[in-house]
Amino acid sequence: MPVALVLQTALRGATSWAFEIETATDETLADPLLRSCISLALDQKNPLPESYRLEVAWWVIQIHAGDPAGAFYAVQTLLQLLPPAVYQAVARMDIAWSLPCLMIEDSPRFRWRGIMLDSSRYFQPVGFIKKFIDLLALHKLNIFHWHLTDDQGWRIEIKKYPRLTEIGAWRSESPLGHFAHFLGGDGVPHGGVYTQDQIREIVAYAAERFVTIVPEIEMPGHAQSAIAAYPDLGCTGNKLNVSTAWGVHENLFNPDESTVEFLQNVLDEVLALFPGVFIHVGGDEAKKTQWRNCPAVTARMTELGIEDVDSLQSWFIGRMATYLAGRGRRLIGWDEILEGGLPPGSTVMSWQGIEGGIVAANAGHDVVMAPKQATYFDFYQSLDTACEPLAIGGCLPLEMVYSYDPVPAEVSAANAARILGAQGQIWTEYMATTAHVEYMAFPRLCALAEVVWSLQATRDFENFRHRLATHLKRLDRLGVHYRSPGDPYSGAM
Ligand code: ACM
After folding, report:
1. Mean pLDDT value across residues 410-427
2. pTM for the full model?
3. What are the DSSP calls for 148-165, one per residue?
4. Residue 285: CB within 6 Å of ligand 1?
5. CB of 376 closer than 6 angstroms to any ligand 1 atom
6. What digits encode the pLDDT tens for the residues 87-126?
7. Does residue 334's CB lie within 6 angstroms of at least one atom of ligand 1?
8. What does residue 126 show for φ and ψ, rounded to 5 degrees?
């Protein structure tokens, strides 16, 4: 959808302004005084990707952008300069729609401005995924990292291997609270699948909003749903169920050639659906007990001349990196892919802390910062946990997200550009509903959006808090179930 159409559509609802879209002529360009309009122009002289200049004068609004994404972000800014009711779909004749006269020159600090959503632990319907992408775009976030497979559910239809979703997408129940091993499960079957048609629709929807989807297919750990569907992929040969427990599981893919081939066939279908350069292969929390204890894996290691299981994981991930590189794509994985040696060309997502990111960046690898201490939105939002819905643990108040600087001091100036950006993580073990996902995401996502867009030197939490009050009115209009920072139980914030 052309950006002019985005603007026309956004304005039509609440303001009832029925702008016509016209391609400018030399005459109109030469004399913007001719009539009032909003002009959008791509400015080839403007070298910064995603940048824009927005000028509001009393007779005309002019947008000059470095590229279409920049024009789209100018439109987001323009909408945010109007009263929050602009986000309402119904006509508001009672509002005097006016904008301040101003000039804004703007461009993002980072090119990777992301949010990860876990759709495996709990499945979210397509309508929610689209709403979520809209909200990313409104916050000028451009990466939707979509966690599609895990022990508790395989969510992406793979035509060649239908059992992945026929079996792997469904579990018999979900754990009840933190003490499920005592309390048991909820007894309610849970599941869901994104068909390839739905995924194509979502990818196109995201692209229109300048959001790239980075799909994640977990390997060699977090593999139980796939092994439940195809037991030959595992190490024990035992028949497994799709997991009904949270936590780190022991069931890994085996390193046989047939399993590598299976996963590469899966990747073929993933690549056909997701055109973005980066493909996430997980790599986290692969406890290697089964690999260590399995004679067939030991024999395979001897055959490959590999001496330890960490190096075996490195070999496994390396096979995928080479496969993806041969198809013009790039592998990204959680920071455990550093163990045993990082395959060349791989990008590291630093989640256990910032150390993985520092090591990788200083070794000349690209890095996305996702440290749990600053970006895990599944953590509690307040120390007063008794007044919060049950969460996985931890504590990440809004101010901590807001004050996070993605470039660690330990990364040399020469390698700072290796930090592509940062992203927030929404692991959904304790978020059974989409309202709960929104509660955990907002307003922390708003703080993160500023972290990845604007310069660290401009960070001012009091100022942010003041602006957030207006921003929450926008989220109200959009029906976002955010956590109110004014909540009496919200501790410091
Ligand atoms: C992770 O939180 N296991 C990446």
Report:
1. 97
2. 0.97
3. -EETTEE-B--TT-THHH
4. yes
5. no
6. 998 999 999 999 999 999 999 999 999 999 999 999 999 9
7. yes
8. -55, -40
